[in-house]
From TrEMBL:
BP GO terms, sorted: proteolysis
Organismal lineage: Bacteria, Bacillati, Bacillota, Clostridia, Eubacteriales
Species whose genome carries this gene: Clostridium sartagoforme
Pfam families: PmbA_TldD_1st, PmbA_TldD_2nd, PmbA_TldD_3rd
Domain annotation Metalloprotease TldD/E central: ranges: 114-217
Protein name: TldD/PmbA family protein
Length: 447
């Protein structure tokens, strides 16, 4: 059954069963993933998925249901299951079917140059990354991975209040993880790119990035425990920011899962820190004109020069907090209820180059990688104790690689202890971004 016909019949069935408001959210996805190993295709995976969820309001409660098949049986099932779930809801949270906004910003998230990509060309590019890595350094003993992937999705919202929104996006990405053997030790590095066209994928450049990172780790050693002047580089800071992103959710705050509850308007970070959520960022991996409730998205400062300006909200949490939705009501999948998530979430770049940050530190530590983020970080309290790698800084320059160290601190304290923010804002295959930051007094456990 065609989508329009299906929705018309679904809405009629919902109306006949006592629903006074109703909505459909649908997603159509396609993804291609190619992995190579030892100059052969190891895995070739092409997947397509389609899903549709139904929300209906009856007796002031909203019930959910979903399907992957569009037929007459699915219509009856969706309405029946939604009605049953609505009538069994016991909490008093008020939920909404949204009538829409007057204007929606046009967002570029779909690239025509990525349409109809030839599979053989993608395979050639993936094989080339492996070949280039071996050609660049004869110490390459193996690979932690080498692949290229393409994905596209079309999604939309249609409801009984006249809302009818649709958006599409696509993305090409490629990566290689060469592993270098030096003596008895192995060192890996990663090169990657997210691209808007095939021309943006340069196998030699990607391989060079991976090789350079691996080589830079040769000869790593620990350092004495103590407090050090520290730079956390952009990619390491992204991993930390990603781990603690949930503390800025209004939903988490209302459930007592964030220490930022009721802190709007208070200083929670250094005046060097401005944290943004920008759904309209050019080439952002999470740029969208509307959220999954149909609310128009907007750019906003979450932290502005140290002050907490807002938490992120969907319609339900905004109503509960007596504020407006920030346009951050998103589903993790079509089958999930609406939650709260950031879009392009990043620390605003500062005025100092990376080299200037090194000079300012003089002697200290550069952190380039955190490990154990899932087990060593408490997203509620902000405490973390993480294995880390990086470099010792001496005379304002990188001196030698550092490993076998543990960094212990608190995310909220870290934000307050930022003394400078770099200009090297980066989104490493992620919708979370950060420049390198310089912090004072970070405790490092070493030898």
């Amino acid at each position: 059954m065609e989508l329009k016909e299906f929705i018309d019949k679904l809405f009629e069935e919902a109306k006949n069963n006592g629903f006074n408001e109703y909505e459909v959210y649908y997603v159509d996805r396609e993804s291609l993933s190619i992995n190579v190993y030892k100059e052969e295709v190891e895995k070739y995976s092409l997947t397509t998925s389609y899903g549709l969820s139904f929300r209906g309001k009856i007796n002031g409660k909203i019930g959910y249901s979903y399907t992957e098949i569009l037929d007459e049986d699915a219509i009856k099932m969706l309405v029946k299951n939604s009605k049953e779930s609505a009538l069994t809801i016991e909490n008093e949270d008020i939920q909404f079917i949204y009538e829409g906004d007057k204007e929606y910003v046009e967002v570029s998230s779909y690239y025509e140059a990525l349409e109809n990509l030839p599979a053989d060309k993608l395979i050639d590019l993936a094989l080339s990354m492996e070949k280039e890595s071996k050609a660049l350094d004869n110490r390459v003993a193996s690979f932690g991975g080498c692949g290229i992937g393409y994905s596209k999705s079309i999604y939309g919202i249609i409801n009984s209040k006249g809302l009818n929104l649709k958006n599409k996006s696509n993305l090409l990405s490629a990566y290689v993880v060469p592993i270098i053997k030096e003596g008895e030790n192995m060192h890996d590095g990663m090169g990657y790119v997210t691209a808007k066209s095939l021309e943006d994928v340069n196998p030699k450049k990607i391989a060079e990035d991976g090789i350079n990172e691996a080589v830079s780790r040769i000869g790593g050693k620990s350092i004495p425990s103590g407090k050090y002047k520290t730079i956390i580089n952009n990619e390491a800071m992204v991993s930390l920011l990603s781990t603690f992103a949930g503390v800025f959710s209004g939903d988490a705050a209302q459930k007592g899962l964030s220490l930022l509850k009721g802190k709007e308007g208070e200083i929670i970070a250094s005046n060097k820190v401005t944290l943004l959520d920008d759904p309209h960022l050019v080439d952002g991996l999470s740029s969208v004109p509307f959220d999954d409730e149909g609310v128009a998205t907007k750019k906003k400062d979450i932290i502005h020069e140290g002050k907490l300006m807002t938490l992120l909200h969907n319609l339900k949490t905004a109503h509960k907090g007596n504020t407006k939705s920030t346009g951050n009501g998103f589903k993790s999948s079509y089958a999930s209820p609406v939650g709260v998530s950031p879009t392009n979430f990043y620390i605003k770049k500062g005025s100092k180059s990376f080299d200037e940050l090194l000079e300012e530190v003089g002697e200290g530590v550069l952190i380039t990688e955190f490990a154990g983020l899932h087990s060593g970080a408490n997203s509620i309290t902000g405490d973390f104790s993480l294995a880390a790698k990086g470099f010792y800084i001496k005379d304002g320059k990188k001196d030698f690689p550092v490993e076998q160290i543990t960094v212990a601190s608190n995310f909220f304290d870290l934000l307050k202890n930022v003394v400078e923010v770099g200009t090297d804002l980066k989104f490493p295959m992620s919708s979370v971004g950060s420049p390198s930051i310089r912090v004072e007094g970070l405790s490092i456990a070493g030898k």
